[in-house]
Design brief:
The chain is an alpha+beta fold and about 240 residues long. It has a domain at about 60-180. The chain has helices at about 5-15, 25-45, 120-130, 185-190, 200-215, 225-230, and strands at about 60-70, 80-85, 100-105, 120, 140-145, 145-150, 155-160. The chain has a 7-stranded mixed β-sheet with strand order 3-7-1-2-6-5-4, with no helix packed on it. Helix 3 links the parallel strand 4 (about 120) and strand 5 (about 140-145). Helix 1 (about 5-15) crosses helix 2, helix 1 packs across helix 5 (about 200-215) and helix 2 packs across helix 5 (about 200-215). The longest helix is centred in the N-terminal third of the chain and has 21 residues, at about 25-45. The two termini are about 30 Å apart.
Length: about 240
Amino acid sequence: MSIRRKLVSDIRGTMKLLSSDAPINDRVLWSEIFNSAKLLIKRETNLRKLWANDTIFSNLPCFEMEEVPISTCCEYVSECTVSRSKHKLPIIGVGNYQYLIQGVYSINVLGGRGKKLKEITINRYLNLLKLPIIKKEEYYWIVDNYLYCNNPMLKAIRMAAFFEEDIPINILYPDCGCGKEYSLDDLCRNPLDLESCIPGYLEKQVLELTSQKLLNTYYKIPTDLTSNNLDNQAPNSVEKG
């Protein structure tokens, strides 16, 4: 897994792009690279690959939860309460079968280890509530980009997922008690200096796909040019889209 800046540099080298070339700056290039990566990563996860690989999954630590009525996430009227994430989740990738989530774990802010929560849909959970005996399991579900858990006393969770955007540090729970602290350097870190989350064996395919998209989008070759004209044309005279 490479640093984002290296992949951007590789694309510039392949496409012979100078850093001064407009409108393609480094952030635009990384956005195009990541869009290509998302297509290939979703293809692989749909084939049941990469699920045991930590490369594509980012860790969202210390996400604060708060107690809310269950009617917050559905039309079910009851005095029952659940916990809901205080902030909306960063956008999570979705495959053919499910969210690309490796795991969601409770955090015991009073000490001790948390446990892995079981994924469920809100409709399935409502069906469980109708049963005479409910299993003592902790479930989670996602509605409108909020994460819910059937344990109303849950104060914080940790999750590993394939996020389609960077995790804003300001949404993390500062008083979690898990020992994770963030410095000023973390808050000010350039996104291009972060790891790319692209598995090494996919990097070549991602760069090839990105190069093709850049050619089709930013550097269109005029259709009326013959092969002889192309041979005689200067590199800098290629039409920019």
